[in-house]
Structure formats: structure tokens, C-alpha cells
Amino acid sequence: MYDTHCHLNDKKYENNLSQIITNYEQNGIEKVICVGFDFESSVLAQKIAKENSSVYFSVGIHPENVADYDEQKLIALLDSDDKKMVALGEIGLDYHYTQDNKEKQKEVFVKQIKLAKKYKLPIIVHCRDAYGDCLEILKENAPYQYGGVMHCFGGSTEWAKEVVKLNFKISFAGSVTFNNAKNLQDVAKALDIQYMLVETDSPYLCPKRGIQNEPKYVQDVAIFIAKLKGFDSEQFINIVDKNALNLFQKLKN
Fold this sequence. Notes:
Elements: E1 2-6, H1 17-26, E2 31-35, H2 39-51, E3 55-59, H3 71-78, E4 85-94, H4 102-118, E5 123-128, H5 131-140, E6 148-150, H6 157-164, E7 168-172, H7 182-190, E8 196-198, H8 218-229, H9 233-247
Parallel strand pairs: 1-2, 2-3, 3-4, 4-5, 5-6, 6-7, 7-8
Helix pairs in contact: 8-9
């Protein structure tokens, strides 16, 4: 199966990256997407993908890093036309820790949406405590011919149903397994499986609480949701993997 969102480019992995990759490959995870969150991490994601056949990558500037947004640097990465670059992201809005740069976040979000369309890439969207503004921007900039995904989803069922109308998938991370995540579990129950992806967002949000997350645990997320929805786990995994291939076309390479 696939982990559609992880951060092998995170500093937490810098001393044991090869072991982390071996761990997921030995646990049946065929491919992972290493997601960029600033310019340096995007460059590193590309490097890791070049060095490891099971790793694909995306480039983008996370909303917490918009102060350092340099469009020309991002364009240079996009112009590399790398066959393993599957998406532009993660991009979006995050008002959890700071709200004093809302307008800058919105501006950079829209700029990156436009770049994704220019380069014919799906987008990976991060949204935290900003669902109203995020949906407004997504609707204003529709349509999304190449689709997108709301990664590590934490919103409501109603919000999820609105965004899938825009050609987006909803991706669930380890947080869906947490005891205090009943609302998120309700979203997973209500959402049609054709709109679903699974991820780890590792090294964060491990479904096995108290330890560092890694891509091998994406199976735990999938099995949990399958049980929640009354699916056979193998059947569920096959469907969400097909969803991933349909969205991230270059994973087929």
C-alpha cells in the first residue's frame, strides 16, 4: 500500500532515514510521498526521492513558512520536471498558532494554487483552524482539473462533503485512531470511500501512542478506518490505493 503524506525530510529522521525506509518497505508499504513544507525541505524531498525507488515527493510552502515565500525558487524546482514530483504542497492556511499574517497566508495559498494549475499538478492542502477561509479560497479558485487532497483532515462532515465537490480527496492520518477523535471518526464513517486516502503525516500523529510515527504505520490507519466502516481491511486498502493512483498520477511510474 501507499503512505500518501509523510516527512522523511524532517530533522527527526536525519540520523536513521535508511532504517525508516527499510522498516516500511519490509512492512509492505510500496511507495510513499515525501512532502515539502518549505524550500529547503522540498529540495531535500527531491533528493531523497532520487536516492530511493519507493519515495516520491511534492514541493511547496506550508502556511507557517509564508514569510520566506520565494516564488522564483519554487518555480525553479517545478521547472525540473521531475518524474517523481507528484504534487504541489503542502500549502494552505493555519491559524492555530498565529493569526496576524492571515492575509499573507491567503496570498501565498492562492499563488501556489495557480502554480499547480500551470504545472498540471494536484495540490496537497493543509488546513488548521481556518476552514471558512480555506473553503472560500478553494471555491474562488475552482475548478481543479488535476484534483487535490485535504491532508490530515480535521474538519466536519459537512465541510468534507463540500470540498469533495471540488474534486478533492480527504486524507486521514493517525489522529483518526485517537480516543478523543469521535468527530473525526464520524467523518470517516459518513464519507464515501471513493473520496478517501490514508497517510501517516509522520514523524507526527502515530496511531501507536507514545512513540515516533513512521510510514510503516499507515497500515494501522487503514485497518482502523476499515473496521470503522465495516470493510474488509484488504478491500479497503485496495480502494484507497487506487484513489491515490488516480490523484497522484506519477505514482504509476
